[in-house]
């Protein structure tokens, strides 16, 4: 029997693995350890976490753990360019930090059941995304990065407005292409924090402003006037367009 | 027992991460329910939307970091052989962690303590301090007792054949007084 998770949701009910993961664990558990190790490259990361937590100490578990750490790395943005040169030291630190803390979690769980690891069995990629955020907060804070924010008085010049036009970085046809999504992510990363937040909320279809006070708006979340948000949205879209066009030509 | 993180902020952010689906209004729902974490939720939404490229080989640095992670994980659980080869410091540090005098740590290293005389809770703590499983610690203590040749040659008294004694006797011989002895054995 696959042991249930112990972490509970905000409403007190337990978290569950996805049915497909439960089925995969049941099937894989019927395999010999040699066979499981041989197939480890094809096992879902959620099931890998389960086996690493539950297999007895030994060479087979080690192999699966190595495979799991490999998966962790693949969900953290790279710090090097195509030729292997380090582009960002902070990104490199974030990469190492996420993996280090994941190892801490595995160690803690070996010691005594650590329910924080349950998230990785529910949705591995999302749990890693949360770990990336934590690591990036620690490192960027350390670097004391700050973004300049213009005042409400700042207007958008006609030149910028003309450049934006009806440009939409989240055009559905473009978003269908994986290469575009990768380039877009890179471009969003290069934006100042304030603009990045605006762009993310627009992507999640949150309106800039609303007459209905009960509606969540970007202006309310960021505690800035509609005008400021629009100004920075236009600046952000301008930068994204420029970057994407430049990359597109490369 | 299960470890629980008490932080509500962590619970909310993790719950959001588990619920997240792009464009499904999840961010909006969480922003309205937890306005106190709004900026963190937006930043997390950004991370959750991030795209990753197809599998490319990991870099040399990444592979080295994986090896280092594996060493940390493997080093956690000492084998019987590792305990036999471990330096005295490993045992004196473990003794220190349990509040024992250094002599008791050396007696431990030389397997001069009878395993059956170690109370269960103390045994558990000792195994943890040595980063070994309870079974490995038992197998280790079951090995024949040893007297350090080095220390025997420096002793002014005639060396006697090593024998296993109780934990209580070991601690008493090391000069632990009654009150502390009782605390140590009762794991207080």
Q: Can you describe what's shown?
A:
The complex is a heterodimer of chains A (250) and B (188). Chain A is mainly alpha-helical and 250 residues long. Chain A has helices spanning 19-29, 33-38, 45-54, 59-74, 89-111, 118-122, 124-143, 158-164, 172-175, 178-189, 193-203, 218-222, 226-249. The longest helix of chain A is centred in the last third of the chain and has 24 residues, at 226-249. Chain B has 2 domains: 8-48; 80-185, no CATH class. At the A-B interface, helix 4, helix 5, helix 7, helix 10 and helix 11 of A face helix 1, helix 2, helix 3 and helix 4 of B.
Largest sheet of chain A: none
Q: Quaternary arrangement of the chains shown?
A: heterodimer
Kindly report the greatest chain-chain contact and the residue count on each side.
Answer: A-B, 61 and 53 residues
Helix-strand makeup class of chain A: mainly alpha
Give the CA-CA distance, first to last residue of chain B. Answer: 20 Å
Biggest sheet record of chain B: none
- Radius of gyration of chain B over all CA atoms, rounded: 26 Å
- The proportion of residues forming helix of chain A, as a percent range, comes to 55-70%
Number of helices of chain A: 13
Shape designation of chain A: globular
Determine the mean pLDDT of chain A.
Answer: 87
Task: Give the strand tally of chain A.
Answer: 0
The computed structural class of chain B is mainly alpha
Radius of gyration of chain A: 22 Å
Order of helices and strands of chain B: HHHHHHHHHHHH
Q: What number of structural domains do the residues of chain B give? A: 2
Shape of chain B: elongated
The percent range for helix content of chain B is 55-70%
């Amino acid at each position: 029997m696959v042991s249930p998770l112990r972490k509970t949701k905000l409403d007190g009910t337990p978290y569950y693995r996805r049915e497909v993961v439960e089925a995969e664990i049941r099937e894989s558990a019927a395999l010999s350890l040699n066979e499981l190790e041989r197939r480890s490259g094809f096992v879902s990361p959620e099931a890998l976490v389960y086996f690493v937590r539950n297999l007895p100490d030994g060479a087979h578990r080690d192999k699966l753990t190595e495979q799991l750490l490999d998966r962790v790395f693949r969900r953290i943005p790279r710090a090097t360019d195509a030729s292997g040169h380090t582009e960002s030291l902070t990104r490199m630190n974030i990469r190492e930090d996420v993996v280090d803390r994941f190892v801490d979690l595995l160690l803690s769980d070996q010691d005594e059941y650590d329910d924080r690891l349950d998230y990785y069995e529910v949705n591995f990629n999302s749990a890693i995304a949360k770990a990336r955020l934590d690591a990036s907060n620690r490192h960027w804070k350390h670097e004391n990065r700050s973004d300049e924010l213009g005042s409400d008085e700042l207007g958008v010049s006609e030149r910028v407005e003309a450049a934006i036009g009806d440009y939409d970085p989240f055009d559905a046809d473009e978003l269908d292409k994986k290469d575009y999504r990768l380039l877009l992510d890179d471009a969003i990363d290069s934006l100042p924090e304030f603009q990045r937040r605006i762009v993310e909320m627009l992507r999640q279809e949150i309106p800039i402003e609303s007459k209905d006070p009960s509606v969540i708006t970007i202006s309310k979340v960021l505690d800035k006037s509609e005008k400021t948000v629009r100004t920075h949205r236009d600046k952000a879209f301008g930068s994204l367009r420029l970057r994407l066009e430049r990359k597109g030509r490369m | 027992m299960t470890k629980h993180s008490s932080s509500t902020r962590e619970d909310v952010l993790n719950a959001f991460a588990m619920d997240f689906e792009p464009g499904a209004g999840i961010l909006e729902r969480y922003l309205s329910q937890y306005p106190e974490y709004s900026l963190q939720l937006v930043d997390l939404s950004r991370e959750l939307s991030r795209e990753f490229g197809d599998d490319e080989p990991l870099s040399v640095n990444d592979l080295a970091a994986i090896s280092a992670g594996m060493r940390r994980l493997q080093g956690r659980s000492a084998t019987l052989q590792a305990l036999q080869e471990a330096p005295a410091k490993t045992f004196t540090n473990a003794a220190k962690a349990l509040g024992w005098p250094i002599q008791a740590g050396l007696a431990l290293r030389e397997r001069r303590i009878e395993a059956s005389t170690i109370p269960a809770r103390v045994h558990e703590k000792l195994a943890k301090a040595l980063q070994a499983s309870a079974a490995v610690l038992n197998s280790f203590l079951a090995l024949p007792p040893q007297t350090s040749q080095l220390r025997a040659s420096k002793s002014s008294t005639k060396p006697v054949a090593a024998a296993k004694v109780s934990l209580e006797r070991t601690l008493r011989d090391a000069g632990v007084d009654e009150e502390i002895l009782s605390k140590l054995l009762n794991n207080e």
